[in-house]
Specification:
Strand content: over 45%
Structural class: mainly beta
Shape: rod-shaped
Largest sheet: 41 strands, antiparallel
């Protein structure tokens, strides 16, 4: 009813129509299809006047036809319950047969989904007296959505009754979906999704505008994100929710991983999830190569999950982590490792690990350091710090920091490992251990030596050690082979580089036997200890 009143009145105001809506549709349909010269049926005298006026203003006036069909589509589409505001159409040529409106030329359609551009669009009804709910766009399709995202393709099919759509490219090309996302901190970052096909699902928002709620991209998916992040995958799901937008990518059918790259970093992952507004990229079961702390070296790694936070410049690896670095060595961690990259540099800076973490260094001889609490590496100071977990202020047995070489085991509550450049390679140079320090033969070797103290300094270059006690306490040392027991303020261990023989020297108040309390402590710390004569 509204349509029947609005169009005739509008055309009367334009001075190009005096008849009814049905007469208008009959006349305009005839004109578009080339039958305007003859009337196929008699009409009233009033309609004849209308015919003469239409012929006068329309037959040779393309701009007038543009107004007629633009206004026709405007009001027919406005009747759809899916469309909150009347759209408008700009087209060079048009024809209408009662069910389909066919447009040609450089067509622009203002729609509640956004502004659509195409060369040969068609608008159809499911039934003659229903509103237009089907839109087909062909050739050089460009759509600017209400949220300023942009779609480019060769063909687009929209069914607004069922709120679905399909995007298709020309042969050998891809469809493109480009959107700008505002991240934390206010920065705007682009995301470009390309694929061989995309299926859309629409929804109406609180603003009564049409929005894309889901996009399924299939075949040869390429995702470009931010300043150099690139993902190649087999399929991807883009979803817009009230809590934010995300994009989830999966591998090709005959592949097991997606390929993710950033500058010189190359990573394979079983799936990848983008959270643009949170500045997060999550890779599931990743493995690959990232830049080392010290270029041009590389870090090879694998993990259960990796989260890349762009705004905070951090990489977080979780679960079953393995890192291999030619400088640091091999790192294994069962919980989490966080790597921080400075904004002013492309190399990594700091590493923090939690949970059980083991480092196998590449120094001469096999050396292993294990931490069950927090481990941190600082590139600026070239140091690693270690802390053991505590329960009520006490480190649980079996969770102390452990250093192990071919013939030595050291345990402590906290520690510091220093690095230095040796012949162009970064190597550990000195180890400092504190609190409840224990020294013994390496597990598997014959248990012939043990010692306890409060602080130990170990030079990994010349294998000299200094073991010190708290003020008022003693360092205790026992050697089974030499039948030697020493109680002193400090002990110094030194290995002859030529004979490989080790010497031990007591400093301060030195005694060569233990008290009853010291024997009890040594037996508690080292089950293999055999008590000596007591003082």
């Amino acid at each position: 009813m509204i349509l029947g009143l609005f169009i005739p009145n509008m055309f009367r105001k334009l001075g190009i129509w005096q008849g009814s809506l049905s007469d208008f549709l009959t006349s305009t349909s005839s004109r578009v299809h080339g039958h305007g010269a003859r009337r196929r049926r008699k009409i009233s005298g009033k309609a004849d006047v209308a015919k003469n006026q239409v012929s006068k203003h329309v037959r040779y006036n393309n701009s007038c036809w543009k107004k007629i069909f633009g206004s026709l589509a405007l009001n027919l589409l406005a009747c759809s319950p899916l469309l909150a505001e009347p759209p408008s159409i700009s087209s060079k040529e048009a024809s209408y047969d009662g069910n389909a409106l066919i447009l040609k030329g450089d067509v622009i359609l203002d729609h509640v989904l956004g502004k659509m551009h195409a060369e040969n669009p068609r608008l159809r009804k499911e039934e003659k007296h229903h509103p237009f709910t089907l839109i087909y766009l062909n050739q050089n399709v460009a759509i600017e959505l209400n949220n300023h995202a942009e779609i480019s393709c060769d063909r687009a099919e929209f069914d607004f009754q069922n709120q679905v759509g399909t995007l298709l490219p020309s042969i050998g090309e891809k469809i493109s979906f480009v959107s700008q996302f505002v991240e934390k901190g206010g920065a705007t970052t682009p995301l470009n999704l390309q694929s061989a096909r995309a299926d859309l699902t629409f929804s109406e928002g609180q603003d009564h505008e049409m929005h894309i709620s889901q996009m399924h991209a299939n075949e040869a998916v390429v995702i470009e994100y931010g300043d150099g992040y690139l993902l190649r995958a087999g399929s991807a799901l883009y979803e817009a929710t009230e809590s934010g937008n995300f994009l989830l990518a999966f591998p090709e059918e005959n592949e097991t991983t997606c390929h993710f790259s950033y500058k010189d970093d190359e990573i394979e992952a079983q799936k990848v999830r983008f959270h643009p507004q949170e500045s997060l990229i999550v890779l599931y079961h990743p493995n690959g190569v990232i830049k080392s702390l010290f270029a041009p070296n590389e870090i090879a790694f694998s993990a259960g999950e990796m989260t890349w936070n762009r705004t905070e410049s951090t990489l977080t690896l979780c679960h079953n982590i393995h890192i291999a670095d030619s400088s640091l060595g091999e790192v294994y961690c069962d919980e989490k490792i966080e790597i921080t990259t400075p904004l002013s540099s492309s190399s990594l800076c700091d590493i923090q690990a939690s949970g059980k973490t083991t480092i196998h260094t590449f120094a001469p001889g096999r050396q292993t350091l294990t931490c069950f609490g927090l481990l941190s590496f600082d590139q600026k100071t070239l140091t690693s710090t270690f802390e053991s977990p505590q329960v009520d202020g006490v480190v649980p047995e079996g969770q102390q920091i452990e250093y192990r070489s071919d013939d030595l085991q050291l345990l402590a509550s906290s520690g510091l490992l220093e690095y230095g450049w040796i012949e162009g390679h970064l190597r550990p140079t000195r180890l400092l251990l504190e609190k409840d320090v224990r020294l013994s033969s390496a597990p598997g070797a014959e248990s012939n030596q043990c010692a306890v103290g409060d602080q130990l300094t170990y030079s990994l270059l010349d294998h000299t050690m200094t073991l010190s006690a708290k003020p008022g306490e003693k360092v205790l040392y026992w050697d089974r082979v030499k039948a030697l027991a020493i109680s002193a303020d400090q002990l110094r261990f030194q290995k002859d580089p030529f004979t490989n023989r080790e010497s031990v020297k007591g400093v301060g108040n030195v005694q060569f036997s233990f008290s009853s309390a010291e024997n009890t402590l040594m037996k508690k710390m080292f089950p293999f200890y055999q008590p000596t004569g007591e003082l």
